[in-house]
Amino acid sequence: xxxICIGELTVDWLALNPGQSLAEAGSFFRCLGGNASNxxxxxxxxxxxxxxxxxxxADVDGVYLRKTxxxxxxxxxxxxxDESRPTAQCYCLTAADGEHAYYNFPxxxxxxxxxxxxxxEEIFAGARFLHATGISFTAEPRRTAVALAMDTARRKGLxxxxxxxxxxxxxxxxxxxxxxxxxxxxxxxxxxxxxLFWAGISSPGSPGDDPAAAAESxxxxxxxxLVAATxxxxxxxxxxxxxxxxxxxxxxxCVDSIGAGDGFIAGLLHALGTRLSSEDTADALxxxxxxxxxAIGRTANAVGAMATTRLGAWTGLPRAAELAPLLAAP
Length: 330
Description:
The chain is an alpha/beta fold. The protein has helices spanning 35-46, 60-71, 121-124, 142-155, 172-184, 192-199, 211-222, 260-275, 290-306, 320-328; strands spanning 3-6, 10-15, 28-33, 50-57, 75-82, 89-94, 100-105, 129-133, 159-163, 187-191, 226-230, 236-240, 243-247.
């Protein structure tokens, strides 16, 4: 049964020389990008069918994205071609300390123009999970369309996963819509800075900085079944109704950390899908035990780690056979 991934789909341009500004950078690597599409490819490579709902322009970049997704086995029937707006682009710069900065253009690109009229019944046919991306909530009409898809999925009994990534410069309306999405989700994924932001903690190391307590606080506040927090080199935390579990990291040689979070989500949803029956709703998450959650977290960590081993957000995502040796490691 497929996982629906809805939202952002872009062409990423990754600057190859760290420490350069956008004006200085001259060498770039072109790569498919966007949280929803990265997760869809990650799932497909692991053997979990994925259906992508998004928009591209009627241009060479749109052709590139659709062909790449099709080659990876992603269902692109609902990747629509916008005849009037260009495919979304994202420049990614890497600072000398390894931190990334993103520049998206143009505004009113095809990816932002997903509308409620495109959230059809056919999208949900046979699906068991829906994954939505937080960045999709920063532009209309896509924000309203993705919110409708989440509400519809919940009503139909699908388990809803939401990536709580939030550009902190966005307006209050965007922030309110995020919190509404939290309430509509069963699973919330955040990284450490996002976890602390939504928990109201100013920065890592500040008073009250306790990731486990913050994750449980978010889970309880919004009635979530699971808060999954990625902690970089420290692994991840899974705050569940059965308790909060620390999942240790797995060693790989990191080339590029872009896409690690998307890989983690793909691994998480794939692992959940292998443990739940096709008839299970989100309520079945409460029946999973501590050992179940630790195994799920290990798979998610492994996929996220392997995503960092190649340049680009999706190129390092593993197939099941490639993942097995890392999962078997001590």
